[in-house]
Specification:
This protein is mainly alpha-helical. The protein has one domain. Helices cover 50% and strands 4% of the residues. It has 4 helices and 2 strands, in the order H-E-E-H-H-H. The protein has a two-stranded antiparallel ribbon. Helix 2 packs antiparallel against helix 3 and helix 3 packs across helix 4. The chain is elongated and about 80 Å long. The N and C termini lie far apart (54 Å).
C-alpha cells in the first residue's frame, strides 16, 4: 500500500524525467495551455484566444478595445460626410444598435 499520495500529473512526471535526462530545460516544463479568464463586464468565461466575450460582446483585451474604437470612428466619420439625411440617420440608428447590443459590435469585428 502507498504511504504517500503523489498529486503529480503524468505530464509533470514526464517533464521532470526529461529535465533530469537533459532533454528539456527547467524553464520549458511550464507548457500548460492558458486557462479561460473571466470577462470584466459580465464575469462569463472568455477563451484565451477570444477577442470578445461570447456572452456580452465586451472587448477582452486592449487590442480588441482599440480595434473597436477605430471601427466606430471610421463608421461615424462617414456619417459626418454623408450626402443624404437618410444615410446619416441610418448610421445613427446603427450606432444606437451597437451601443445597445455590444455582442453585435463584437460579431462585426471578430475574425
Amino acid at each position: 500500500m502507498l504511504e504517500i499520495y503523489d498529486h503529480t500529473t503524468d505530464r509533470e512526471m514526464n517533464d521532470q524525467l526529461r529535465v533530469q535526462a537533459g532533454f528539456l530545460d527547467e524553464a520549458e516544463t511550464d507548457t500548460a495551455p492558458p486557462e479561460p479568464r473571466p470577462c470584466g463586464n459580465c464575469l462569463g468565461l472568455v477563451s484565451p484566444t477570444s477577442r470578445f466575450c461570447p456572452r456580452c460582446g465586451a472587448a477582452g483585451s486592449l487590442e480588441a478595445r482599440e480595434a473597436l474604437q477605430e471601427q466606430e470612428e471610421r463608421l461615424f466619420d462617414s456619417a459626418a460626410d454623408a450626402r443624404t439625411d437618410d444615410l446619416a440617420e441610418a448610421i445613427r440608428a446603427f450606432r444606437r444598435l451597437t451601443e445597445t447590443y455590444p455582442e453585435l459590435k463584437a460579431a462585426l469585428l471578430d475574425d
